[in-house]
Write a structure and sequence with these properties.
The structure holds two protein chains of two kinds. By secondary structure, chain A is an alpha+beta fold. Helix content of chain A is 30%, strand content 23%. Chain A has helices spanning 3-14, 110-119, 169-182, 209-228, 255-258, 263-274, 277-283, 290-295, 323-328, 344-356, 359-365; strands at residues 22-29, 36-43, 56-59, 72-82, 91-98, 126-136, 186-191, 197-206, 231-233, 248-253, 310-312, 319-321, 333-335. In chain A, strands 6, 7, 8, 9, 10, 11, 12 and 13 form an eight-stranded mixed beta sheet that branches. A five-stranded mixed beta sheet of chain A has the order 2-1-5-4-3, covered by helices on one side. The longest helix of chain A is centred in the middle third of the chain and has 20 residues, at 209-228. The N and C termini of chain A lie far apart (52 Å). The model of chain A has no long low-confidence stretch (mean pLDDT 93). The mean pLDDT of chain B is 93. Chain B has helices spanning 12-19, 116-125, 175-188, 215-234, 261-264, 269-280, 283-289, 296-301, 329-334, 350-362, 365-371; strands spanning 27-34, 41-48, 61-68, 74-88, 97-105, 109-110, 132-142, 192-197, 203-212, 237-239, 254-259, 316-318, 325-327, 339-341. Chain B is 29% helix and 26% strand. Chain B is an alpha+beta fold. In chain B, helix 2 (116-125) runs parallel beside helix 10 (350-362) and helix 6 packs across helix 10. In chain B, strands 7, 8, 9, 10, 11, 12, 13 and 14 form an eight-stranded mixed beta sheet that branches. In chain B, strand 3 (61-68) and strand 4 form a beta hairpin. The chains are: A alpha+beta, B alpha+beta. Chains A and B meet through helix 1, helix 3, strand 7 and helix 4 of A and helix 1, strand 2, strand 3, strand 4 and helix 4 of B.
Amino acid sequence: MNMAFIKAAREHYMSLSQRDKCQVTYIWIDGTGEGLRNKTRTFDTEPQSVEDIPEWNFDGSSTYQSEGSNSDMYLIPVRMFRDPFTCDPNKLVLCEVLRYNRLPAETNHRMSCKKVMDQVKEHGIWFGIEQEYTLLGTDGHPYGWPQKGFPAPQGPYYCSVGTGKAIGRDIVECHYKACLYAGIKIFGTNAEVMPSQWEFQVGPCEGIEMGDELWVARFLLHRVCEDFGVIATLDPKPMKGNWSGSGAHTNVSTKHMREEGGLQYIEQAIDKLSKKHMEHIKVYDPHGGQDNMRRLTGHHETSSINEFSAGVANRAASIRIPRQVGQEKKGYFEDRRPAANCDPYLVTKAIASTCLLDDVEQVKGS
Amino acid sequence: MTTLSASSGLNKTVRQHYMGLPQGDKCQVTYIWIGQNGEELRGKTRTLETEPKSIDEIPEWNFCTAHRLSLVQVCYNELFLIPVCMFRDPFTLDPNKLVLCEVLKNGRLPAETNHRMSCKKVMDQVKEHQIWFGMEQEYTLLGMDKHPFGWPQWGFPAPQGHYNSGVGADRAIGRDIMECHYKACLYAGIKICGTNSETMPSQWEFQVGPCEGIEMGDHMWVARFLLHRVCEDFGVLATLDPKPMKGKWSGSGGHMNVSTKQMREEGGLQYIEQAIEKLSKRHKEHIKVYDPHGGQDNMRRLTGENETASINEFTAGVADRAVSVRIPLQVSLDKKGYFEDRRPAANCDPYLVTKAIASTCLLDDVEQTKGT
C-alpha cells in the first residue's frame, strides 16, 4: 500500500473547515490499568475550559471494566489539552472513570491520588517522570532490528546519532512536537541504551498534574505510532538477556528540599521510603511487582528488586541523589524503581504518602 | 532496498504534519557532544521556556556513562555538558537550536576526549597571528550491510577514474545526501564552503572554513553531526574511516588548509616555508594525533599511493598531491596564501589537528611544552 498517497489524501480532509463546531476526544484508562481508550464527540462551540465539557459514558464491558448486564460507566473530564492530530479548535480531554454507582472504577487511581495530593498541598511536591519505551514492528520484534536476529551489543545507542544507531527518531520528534502543541509539560527526549528504545521526560508537575500529563503523553505516543505503523511498548523488559529494560524513573522534590539546606529533607524522605520498599514495589507496576521482577535484576543500571538502596550518583541504587544535589545540598531525588508501565497516579501517591503523611494519615488515605 | 535502514521507511508525509505544529514560545535545544571514543557524536534534547538569544542563555546539563569494571561491577560516571557554540536546527527548524558542548568530568576537569579545552588554550595564545583553517572532510556512504552504498552487492564497480566531481547515475552515487547536508549546514550557520564527489564511487567531500582558531573544530564537529543525522533520514551510513575499502580504492582524509595573517599578506610565502620547516621536524608527533588511534588508522591510508604521502616520511612540494604538505600552485605564483597539510585522516579530531599545527608553527618550544 502506498502510505504516502493515503496520508496525502488525509491532508485534504483534515483541512476542511468545521465552522464553529469542535471535536472533543475523551480519553480514559481501561480495565487493565495500562491500556488507553478514546472516543470523540462534536460540540457546537469550542470549550474554553474543562468545566465546559460535560460528563459522558461508555460501555465498560468492552474495556474490561464491567459486566454486560450493568455496563454503563461514567467519564468525568479532568484535564483539557489541544489536539495535535486534528488541531485547533479540537480538544483532547483526560477523564476519570466512575462505575454505575459513581464510585471510582477499579483502575481509577486518580481519585485516591488526588486526595493525598490535596492533603500534602502545602509541601509543593513536584514530580518529573522519565518515560522509557521500546519501538516494535507489528511482528512484535524491536523495530529496525534484524529480522529474527539481534543488533550489535549495547554501547553505541544511548543519545546516538546516525543510521543503525538511532532507530525511529521520526516518532520521537513527532511525539515531542505533538506534546508541545497539546500543552504537555514535556521536558526532553533522548535515545536510550537499547537500540529502538527511547525516553521522554514530563515535568516538573505539581501533585496530581504528574499523572494527568503522563497519561496523556502516553496517549499521544501511541497515537503518533499509529500514524507510522509501529508499536510503542511500555513493557519493562521487552527483550530477555543482555538488553536494558524500561523504567519510569520518578524525580521528586518538595519546597523544603528545593530550598537551602534541603538535603536533610531529601535524606529524611529516603529513610522513610527505605522502610516501605515492598509496599512501593507492589504499586510500581500494574502486576504487583511481577513485571519489575524481570527488570530490577541489579544489572543494566538497575537495583535489585529485593532490597532497598540509595546513593549519590548511583544508578544501580533504588534511589539516586544526583551528584549536583549532593554538592549543592538541595534539590531532588530520583526513585529508579517504577517500571515503564506503572500507573503514575499510584507511584506519585505512594511517594507523597510515605514521605509526607504520618502513619495515621497514610492509613486513612489508602 | 534492503541496504536502507528501517527508519528511513517511516512516512515522511506524516512527519511533516507534526513538524508543522506550532510550539508557542517554547524552544527545543539539542545538546551535542563528542562521545567516549573520540569519534562518535551523541545528542539529547530539552525544552527551554523561550528561545535563547545566545550561548550564554543555555544552561549546563549532564549525562551518564557506564563503564564495566568486571563481570559484576559497573562504574557510573556523571559528566557535565558545557555549551560552547549555538546553531540553528535544520531538522526541527527555528526557533529550535543545536548546541555543541564540551564535556567535563568530576572536578570540572576535561573528559578524556575533550580536546577542545587544550586546543582553545593554544588558540588564545596565538590569537595575534589570526590563524585560519579550512578542512576538507571526506566520507564514504555505506548501506546497512556495510558495503559502499550503490556498489554491486558482493562486488565492485568499475575502477576509479570517472567518479571525481562526476555527474550521472553511474558516477555520482548518493548526491541527495550531499545536497541535503549542504543545505542543512547553510541553514544551521556552519561555514560550509563547498562540496564535490570524490575519487572513489560513493565517496564525497565537503569543506568547512575559513574558520579562525577554535572555530574550526567547533564547526567541523557540528557539520559531522548534521551529516550523520541527514544520513539517518535517508537510511544510509556515512563512515569517516580513512580506508574503508582495501585495494585500489582511495582512502578518506581530513586535509587541513592553514594560513596566518602574515602568510596571507604580500611576501607571505616565506612564512609558509618557515611553517613547513617546523612541521617537518615534528612529523611523528603530528601523525600520532592525526587519527584517533595514534596513527594506526592512517597506516592503512598513507601508503604513498592514491594521492597520499607515505606515513613514514615528511615531504612537501608545490602542486604535488603525493606529499605530506602541499603548497598550491597559485600560492607559489602569488608568493602568499596558505598551505595544505594532507596527513590528517578523515576521522581525526579537528581540535587535536588544529592545536598541533598552531603549536608547532606558532609557539616556541617552551610554550609548546606548557600547552600540552
